[in-house]
């Protein structure tokens, strides 16, 4: 158990621990596991920026979503508790490290780049405009380029996700509206059984959820885990949209 004489001393020790993490990562003893880095990341963000108040990343932004969850899950943790737990975790990763405060020469903390970004994790990569396909333009929200490249048959990616899935994930309502007009299957499911409504609901995109329901998306469809779009939602206001929709069917 760490016993601190003052908040200023705790902050100095937290800063020292945050800097020491970079040494641990570069050491020959091996890089910390992703779960350990996420544990530290969430507490560092809470200590330096306060409780999470940024929008939830799309379901396909896997790395960003993991980091957001690590930060957002600490809403009931105090800043003092977060700093203390951060220091204790560094001590676990390097038992030889002492908590003696040392003067820092570099910036503090774990950077976003510290967490691995796998080339297969679904995060966006930089692609030259001349090499972009429909999915690239959809992710960027460029409706004009989607219209310019409109194919005879709308494609799916290798996970059976349509442009409608992607536009719901990214929150591009104008593209969702266009694809609905183009006759996209509102209830089409990807390899995990997720519909566009699942994506919009999981990302708490109420405006898109409302649009999909208005045009006939089926909220009763379950994914491979047996969850409906309503069950994937964490926002009370978006859940209420489903309740209003269901009540309207009874009147």
From TrEMBL:
| GO molecular function annotation | fatty-acyl-CoA binding
Which Pfam family is one of this chain's hits? Ank_2
Matching InterPro entries: Acyl-CoA-binding_protein, Acyl-CoA-binding_sf, Ankyrin_rpt, Ankyrin_rpt-contain_sf, FERM/acyl-CoA-bd_prot_sf
Q: Tell me the ranges covered by the ACB domain, including all copies.
A: 10-99
Q: Where are the ANK repeats?
A: 159-191, 192-224
UniProt keyword annotations, A-Z: ANK repeat, Lipid-binding, Repeat
Top-rank lineage group of the source organism: Eukaryota
Protein name per UniProt: Acyl-CoA-binding domain-containing protein 6
Biological source species: Ciona savignyi
């Amino acid at each position: 158990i760490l016993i601190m004489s003052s908040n200023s001393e705790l902050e100095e020790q937290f800063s020292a621990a945050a800097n020491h993490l970079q040494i641990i990562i570069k050491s020959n003893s091996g890089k910390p596991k992703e779960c350990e880095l996420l544990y530290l990341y969430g507490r560092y963000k809470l200590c330096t920026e306060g409780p999470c108040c940024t929008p939830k990343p799309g379901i396909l932004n896997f790395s960003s979503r993991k980091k957001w969850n690590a930060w957002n899950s600490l809403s009931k943790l105090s800043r003092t508790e977060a700093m203390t737990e951060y220091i204790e975790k560094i001590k676990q990763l390097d038992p030889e490290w002492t908590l003696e405060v040392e003067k820092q020469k570099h910036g503090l903390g774990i950077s976003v780049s510290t967490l691995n970004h796998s080339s297969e994790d679904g995060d966006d990569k930089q692609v030259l405009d001349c090499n972009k396909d429909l999915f690239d333009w959809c992710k960027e929200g460029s409706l004009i380029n989607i219209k310019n490249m409109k194919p005879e048959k709308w494609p799916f990616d290798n996970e059976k996700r349509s442009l409608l899935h992607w536009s719901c994930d990214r929150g591009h309502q104008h593209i969702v509206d266009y694809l609905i007009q183009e006759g996209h299957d509102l209830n089409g499911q990807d390899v995990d059984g997720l519909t566009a409504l699942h994506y919009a609901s999981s990302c708490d995109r109420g405006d898109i959820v409302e649009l999909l329901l208005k045009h006939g998306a089926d909220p009763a469809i379950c994914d491979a885990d047996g969850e409906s779009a309503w069950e994937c939602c964490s926002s009370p206001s978006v859940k209420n949209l489903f309740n209003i929709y269901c009540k309207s069917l009874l009147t």
